[in-house]
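Reminder to self: keep the SMILES exactly as supplied, no canonicalising. Ligand is flavin mononucleotide.
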Amino acid sequence: MALKRKLYSGQDFRRALSIAELREVARRREPHFAFEYVDSGAEDEVTLRRNRAAFEALAFVPGLLVDTTGRNQRRMMLGQEAAAPLVIAPTALNGVHCRDGDLALARAAAAAGIPFCLSTFANVRLERLAREVAGRHWMQLYLLTDRAIARDIVARADAAGFEALVVTADANVFGQREWDKRNYRGPGRLTLRNMLDVMRHPRWLVDVMWPQGFPRFANVYDFLPPEARSARAGVAYLPRLLQPDISWADLEWLRKAWPRKLLLKGVLSPADAERAAELGCDAVVLSNHGGRQLDGCVSPLEMLPEARAAVGDTCELYIDSGFRRGTDVLKALALGAQGVLIGAATLYGLAAGGEAGARHALDILSGEIDRALGQLGCRELGELGPQVLRRCPAP
Ligand SMILES: Cc1cc2nc3c(=O)[nH]c(=O)nc-3n(C[C@H](O)[C@H](O)[C@H](O)COP(=O)(O)O)c2cc1C
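Structure tokens returned for the bound complex:
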């Protein structure tokens, strides 16, 4: 009988050849609820699928017989050179995939020579990150009910020397990730099926949970009421802190309060990108939150050319949502993105093998970038432009 094609899903993350394969290793290694938290999108997951489909609608047109020895993928981002056009995106609860998961991801980023962005809902205090990990650090900010939380984070990130503040604007109302929610019978309470599944992952229990239990939301902890301070209660409580009243006035205030680079994340409309640039943002992150917020919305890649035209040279454009291959990254750069934020791809690496697994994810992506750059007939990222792409119906 002929063997069927099958992605590797064993224990050794080093054998993963692609992000899709790292995802399979992660799926096996951690409890289902932790994996689903990363993997699921909002409602029918139409946005999640669209993010991927948008890449397939763009095809490369390579140039031939160009000497591409000595290729490099260095990129200026926010005025400093990075070794690759990548940034680790801010993600909450990294501590459920690996002990001190935020530090592990930051170390992987530093080793790869790229910036790391810490989430407001990280499990490690921003001061500890600054103290323990060298490298470029950006701080993500959610504007929560009490603006005192934002004032506190801004002041602390400033004192700790963070390079940039990334204000996330597309979570004014928390997205409904139904597949994630189905793992709970009530806020913060796993179903019996999921509790049994956790027991089937003793190594994860020892490596990640023992002895301190579920990781805390270290950067907002002091602002939580006592009954929401346990991490389990926090998971249920924090989404309620997200605020429907956030407005451009908040961004104006932050521009005055934050002395260094300011980015607005979650932008999809060219008009919003333009307004952010006019308000003094140094960059905009085109994003639909990895398909986790509004279902049925455009992919940031589809909006990139218009956004590029809208902001011109007034600010840099970054992008995320659905990037799983080096070729995806090159498509975005060819359309005018300065860099790409990577969310789920490095989290699969983290879940599959901690810091080394996250490094493996970054190695996979930069290996793919390097190969595709050569196959396109380019030596440097600056040579990419719309000439290497054609819009075609997806195969
Ligand atoms: C598990 C997870 C948690 C996230 N938490 C945050 C967060 O705390 N703040 C934020 O601005 N974005 C958050 N995001 C969105 C990411 O910053 C990023 O926009 C998204 O992951 C990009 O899509 P990708 O996962 O397909 O790469 C999260 C994404 C994931 C997968």
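Points to follow up:
The two ends are 30 Å apart (CA to CA).
The chain has a mean pLDDT of 94.
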